[in-house]
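Dear Dr. H.,

I hope your travels went smoothly. While you were away I took the liberty of generating a structure for the chain from your last submission, since the lab meeting agenda had it listed for discussion. I wanted you to have the full record in hand beforehand rather than looking at slides cold. The sequence, exactly as received, is reproduced here:
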Amino acid sequence: MDFPTIRPRRLRRSASLRRMVRETELGPGRLIYPMFVTHGKGVRNEIRSMPGCAQLSVDLLVQEAREAHAAGVPGVILFGIPARKDATGSEGYARDGIVPQAIRALKDALPDLLVWGDVCLCEYTDHGHCGVIRNGNVDNDATLPLLAKAATVYAEAGADVIAPSDMMDGRVGAIREALDDEGFSEVAICSYAAKYASAFYGPFREAAESAPQFGDRRAYQMDPPNALEALREVALDIDEGADIVMVKPALAYLDVIRRVRDEFDVPVAAYNVSGEFSMIKAAAAAGWIDEKRVAAEVLLSIRRAGADIILTYFAKDAAEILREHRS
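The corresponding predicted structure, in token form, is as follows:
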């Protein structure tokens, strides 16, 4: 009987060999930790649909960020829970709003921590949409100055990266111009360039208290069947001044991540969103999967698809989780 000369299994027979020929590496240094900040002191509001995640007051947020940073995570992205909501989302761009408060506290306590500020109005509006409503629709152009104002307020507070997630046309250009005019030309922009109208956002809407009060967001977020459109959106945002571009969600859009990575020469981020996180948590709680191994496999798949940066709720525990893929 003839035996094969070429035997790929030779390089799989020990952990040392597997590590030596591994094609994709991922450590905590490529992760960003999404966090929810709320008013008060000593406040920890557990998020029912996202086990282990919570809305945190600024003091507890700093503690949590310190733990993540000590584990090797270089940065966090902040989502604010306002004291009150109104039609134009005014706390989203107020200098004394909850996110600027958190940015200042994080920068005071952890100067080396990268702080990203998510810029959108959905958490702050009483209608739950991402912009100003005119005649029952989100008014794109009326929303842009408010997003630009939020960006400059966050930059003034000390944010390193501004991350607009609203999907208004022209928002990156408006934000870049406002930042430059206010003397913040060194502050980077990570645009949610290809953000899909996804069913995977459900747990986030509980966490951020941002569910739309009428209709949905399909008129401004991307249609899931489209991939060429994502490339167009990314190209437009780069032309307007985006330093990093993001695909969101990640797991159901790995093909889009790969196409963006192959097409463009800027850093690519991907958001491992709440629904992706919560499905793993729920299945693990039921005893159906090994949480750490599945989480590591998912994060590695996002990295393998081409993401340079991954936003994930697993970030704080990533050092332990990613150990599973090293054996």
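Two observations you may find useful: The radius of gyration is 20 Å. The first strand starts at residue 31 and ends at 38.

With kind regards,
E. W.
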